[in-house]
TrEMBL record:
PANTHER family: UPF0125 PROTEIN RATB. NCBIfam families: PRK01777.1. This is UPF0125 protein DLD99_04150. InterPro entries: Mopterin_synth/thiamin_S_b (IPR016155), RnfH (IPR005346), RnfH_sf (IPR037021). It comes from Pseudomonas kribbensis. Gene3D superfamilies: RnfH-like. It comes from the Bacteria. Belongs to the UPF0125 (RnfH) family. Pfam families: Ub-RnfH (PF03658).
Length: 104
């Protein structure tokens, strides 16, 4: 008997380029299995698919080894942040306060 397949999208955005692939996976595949099947790590050797954070339609998946993909899902592979946004805002506010104090 033929195993039913579903289509999903896998996306990844590096600093210099983005990739979107539509792939077919077996129904019941986990997020991690689908990522392994997509072959995107061949295009981005620095990408660690086993440990990188992933999401579906912008929502981070807590356990990609358990979460089963659904037809039409868009799996997103996330890069680590270069800077903590809270820390950047704090530094910007401190700099603005310092500049304001210097004008007085």
């Amino acid at each position: 008997m033929v195993e039913p397949v579903i289509e999903i999208e896998v996306v990844y955005a590096a600093v210099d380029r983005q990739v979107l692939r539509t792939i077919s996976v077996a129904e019941g595949s986990t997020v991690r299995a689908a990522l392994s099947a997509c072959g995107i790590d061949g295009d981005f050797p620095e990408l660690d698919l086993a440990g990188c954070p992933v999401g579906v339609f912008g929502k981070v998946i807590a356990d990609p080894d358990v979460r089963v993909v659904q037809a039409g899902d868009r799996l997103e592979i996330y890069r680590p942040l270069l800077a903590d946004p809270k820390e950047v805002r704090r530094l910007r506010a401190a700099k603005a306060a310092e500049a304001k104090a210097g004008k007085q």
